[in-house]
Amino acid sequence: MKKLAFTLCMLFSIWSCDSNKTELTIDHSSDLKKINKTIKDWDIAWETKDLNLAIKHYTDETDWTNAFGARVQSKEKLKDLLNRIFNMDFVMSGENNYGENEITFVNDSIATVRSQNIRKNQKWPDGSIMEDRIINHLRVYQKLNDNWFITDHMISQAWPRESN
Q1: Of the CATH numbers 3.40.50.1010, 3.30.70.1230, 2.30.30.30, 3.10.450.50, which one belongs to the domain with range 28-158?
Q2: What DSSP state is assigned to residue 163?
Q3: What is the mean pLDDT of residues 51-72?
Q4: Which of 30, 82, 108, 116 has a CA between 20 and 30 Å from the CA of residue 40?
Q5: How far apart are CA 139 and CA 55, in angstroms?
Q6: Phi-psi category of 145—alpha, beta or left, where left has phi over 0 and alpha has psi -120 to 50?
Q7: Whether pLDDT at 16 is above 70
Q8: Residue 22 DSSP SS3
Q9: What's the 3-state SS for 25-78?
Q10: Is the pLDDT of residue 11 over 80?
Q11: Neighbouring C-alpha atoms within 13 Å toward the C-beta of 115
């Protein structure tokens, strides 16, 4: 009798498992818009040298590193650093050419975003023009109170490779 009960339990367990179940899909369209808006705000802030808009979407304990290795670990220190950067005319010269943002949702409240910018006509401190270069951004976002905030932001750069 015990074997029959065990066998029936096993069969019932197997039948109740549906291998064709579809996973719950989450509509992130509203989140995508919100995240893309934060990046657009960053771009506008860079062009207009608007410090408050530049830091608006960062958490107070953000961890931010630029392409030259300058690292800050708070929103307030990021504001101070960006104030210095925004006042360097040679850094602020040039044009940005952004591609599409690659947004990946790790879960409902964490997302990563990769962005790429081809920076053209930026100047060196002596006023000469730099070669065009590729600027990559990797941002980590956390959803807090239905808004997306940047907790980590790393910027890297690469010079275009010569054709072989």
Answers
A1: 3.10.450.50
A2: P
A3: 95
A4: 108
A5: 13
A6: left
A7: no
A8: coil
A9: CCCCHHHHHHHHHHHHHHHHHHHHCCHHHHHCCEEEEEEEECCCCCEECCHHHH
A10: no
A11: 20
